[in-house]
Design goal:
The chain is about 30% helix and about 25% strand. It has about 300 residues and is of the alpha+beta class. The strands form two sheets. Strands 1, 2, 3, 4, 5, 6, 7 and 8 form an eight-stranded mixed sheet that branches. Strands 9-10-11-12-13 form a five-stranded antiparallel sheet, with no helix packed on it.
């Protein structure tokens, strides 16, 4: 039986600090999907998201038309509202919907591999809370729902990466890759400037689906080896097996851009203290993950270095 790929969305909330910027991560309930891991607020799209998107279609079209193709990515407005609703439900953060629509931007879209039982087509959005008129200190303490999420933390990308490397925080690949990318960009301004550059180079790249077809290698001496892409990955068979008609149509339309050109190996030793991350990127187009070009991290080295951008 083929796995259904559910439309979902997540929000990367940013806050400016004196010398850096902070990101919000929430800890998932140990009894639900992605148990006990730390992630950006988000979840699956619902009917109410579609309805609210329709009510705000004029503003969404005005502010986001350059990010998505109405003909092939009709799901986009619903996804945009889904990220807002899920964030408000999970964190209690109340955002003005007009300000959110006008100031949020898509940053990356990732598709769960087909061999995973629960699959999601997730559009990630970025939103700068410091751009609102709300006093920044009011965001320090938020009200977690204690249903889907049981804890939260505002910290810098560098902090989350360090805790992950120390084995003190569980992060799934889509999260730590984006934290690495945010760290490389170095500032909120660079994040939004990079999105602008990505979209200018090839329109709609921020909403183009990345098929995250990785494999986990078993080794008796190592805790984890995750390799992306799986060298046995075959684009044609993946597309033909895709149950989502929308996703399959997008991939077929831009097959020349669906090459798995982002490569990385994440290796973690049994004692959780030795960590190695290597990436090689040779994309025919710009992407949010392009800033990970030739990034190499051995244990804590390079984390303390200045960002590249």
């Amino acid at each position: 039986m083929k796995n259904i790929c559910r439309q979902s969305a997540a929000m990367i909330l940013l806050r400016q600090t004196k010398d850096d910027f902070k990101v919000l991560l929430v800890k998932r309930n140990p009894n639900i999907s992605f148990a006990s891991s730390w992630a950006f607020p988000g979840g699956a799209a619902e009917k109410q998201d579609f309805e609210l998107a329709n009510q705000n279609s004029e503003l969404i079209d005005k502010c986001h038309s350059s990010f998505y193709n109405k003909l092939f990515t009709s799901w986009y407005p619903t996804s945009l509202i889904c990220a807002l609703r899920e964030t408000q439900e999970e964190t209690g953060i109340k955002l003005d919907i007009n300000h959110y629509i006008m100031n949020s931007q898509p940053i990356l879209r990732l598709i769960t591999p087909q061999h995973i039982q629960k699959r999601y087509d997730t559009q990630f959005y970025v939103y700068n809370l410091s751009s609102t008129e709300v006093e920044d200190s009011l965001w320090d303490e938020i009200k977690i729902d204690n249903t889907e999420c049981i804890d939260y933390l505002w910290e810098t990308p560098k902090y989350f990466i360090e805790k992950f490397l120390e084995g003190k925080m569980m992060l799934f690949p889509p999260i730590f890759l984006q934290l690495f990318a945010l760290r490389q960009l170095g500032s909120i301004n660079n994040v939004f400037e990079y999105i602008k550059m990505v979209n200018k180079e090839y329109q709609y790249n921020c909403t183009f689906p990345f098929l995250f077809q990785f494999k986990q290698i078993k080794d008796q001496n190592l805790l984890h080896i995750i390799q992306y892409p799986d060298e046995l990955f075959d684009r044609k068979s993946v597309i033909s097996n895709e149950t989502s008609i929308i996703l399959r149509t997008e991939l077929e339309r831009r097959i020349e851009y669906s090459k798995q050109a982002i490569k990385f190996r994440f290796i973690q030793q049994e004692d959780d203290k030795n960590f190695k991350f290597e990436s090689q990127i040779d994309l025919p187009y710009f992407s949010f993950l392009s800033c990970l070009q030739n990034l190499k991290i051995q244990n804590q080295r390079q984390i303390d270095q200045s960002p590249k951008l």
